[in-house]
Design a protein that fits this description.
With 356 residues, the protein is an alpha+beta fold. The chain has 10 helices and 8 strands.
């Protein structure tokens, strides 16, 4: 006989931490870009290149601080309803920055370095002729634009002689069009590289092969496609990370109940997309677990007399909540009378994704 229960739960701390850790890995791409700039630039560093470097370092520092703050709360098991959504919002910002925009920014920096000498000579010529390229009014308005790349694009447009008498509204439109064209060109140039990077990240995270193939075979037509594929890849990587952490949590929790876990018995079934293991007590009681990517795990306790399994199940669920911040939000039980020495308890736990 058996006892079956379905439980919806939240694992906000685990999800938030996994999301932030993945975002921090992505931010390392900024360090790689800054290193390449240093190698290429030599003595040709210009004020514009320095402004790019300054922006990237500041953006990286600010986002890193926010991510680490969320990780600290997750480690402390701070119960905040917004912790996972805040992590997801930051993750999207990082994905946006480190995918196509970072490549486009590198292209702009390379262009600046290549043309640094010509621009310097033109600047000297303008100064000698008493030409002021950009008015103070325009410069002040530029500082009000938060999007760094858009601000730089409008700045470059404003430097062009034919735009000297253009209004601020006209310069904004020209700058937006220029930036969109640059992003499109950069996307076409780097799209194969971007997809290879995403594919490698998925493989390193041990994401299911079929999932990797589905994402890798997708065609990139525009920036929206890159955002979609990048977000999907990040979601898969985080999902796999959450499953691994859930596996560790369950193993630790059952061990505190006197079960012995042989790590050699951890099995991965790619067809069913599940990880399973069996834990056993010296006295013979067993607990079997199956953990899935969709935020669900199933466990079965057997080898007990009557309702004796409750002495392990109830503390097990309590530890998940109190120690690891896995909170049950809905439980539906279907009971039947267990037979002596053949009692079983099945429980299915589903993550309530809609609560993040």
């Amino acid at each position: 006989m058996s006892h079956v229960a379905t439980i919806n739960y939240e694992a906000l701390s685990i999800e938030a931490k996994a999301t932030c850790e993945q975002a921090l890995k992505q931010l390392c791409k900024i360090d790689e870009l800054l290193a390449r700039i240093k190698d290429k630039a030599s003595m040709l560093i210009t004020d514009r290149v320095r402004s790019y470097e300054s922006f990237l370092k500041k953006e990286q520092a600010n986002i890193t601080a926010e991510l680490n703050q969320i990780i600290s709360k997750a480690n402390a098991k701070t119960r905040e309803a917004s912790i996972a959504s805040n992590a997801n919002n930051l993750s999207k910002i990082v994905d946006n920055l480190t995918s196509y925009r970072l490549n486009a920014m590198e292209d702009l920096i390379n262009d600046e370095l290549i043309n640094a000498t010509n621009r310097h000579q033109q600047s000297l010529s303008n100064q000698a002729l008493g030409i002021i390229s950009i008015s103070q009014d325009i410069l002040k308005k530029l500082e009000t634009i938060d999007d760094f790349m858009l601000r730089e694009s409008i700045y470059q447009v404003a430097l062009q002689g034919e735009n000297v008498n253009k209004s601020w509204t006209e310069l904004q439109l020209l700058g937006k069009n220029r930036l969109n064209a640059q992003l499109k060109t950069s996307l076409e140039k780097h799209k194969d590289k971007i997809m290879l990077e995403i594919q490698k990240e998925l493989k390193d995270a041990k994401v299911d092969v079929q999932v990797i193939e589905n994402i890798s075979s997708s065609k990139i037509q525009n920036i929206s496609d890159i955002e979609t594929f990048r977000n999907k890849a990040t979601s898969e990587i985080i999902g796999e990370s959450v499953r691994k952490e859930t596996l560790k949590v369950i193993m630790k929790t059952v061990e505190t109940r006197g079960f012995i876990v042989d790590k050699k018995n951890i099995k991965i079934d790619r067809e069913k997309n599940e990880v399973r293991f069996i834990a056993q007590k010296v006295s013979g009681e067993r607990a079997e677990f199956r953990i899935y990517l969709d935020g669900k795990f199933i466990y079965k306790f057997d080898g007990y007399e009557g309702q004796a399994c409750q002495k392990d199940i109830e503390p097990f669920m309590k530890d998940l909540a109190d120690i690891y911040d896995i909170k049950v939000v809905k439980q539906v039980d279907n009971w039947s009378n267990p037979d002596k020495n053949q009692s079983m308890k099945y429980q299915t736990v589903n993550k309530n994704k809609g609560t993040n």
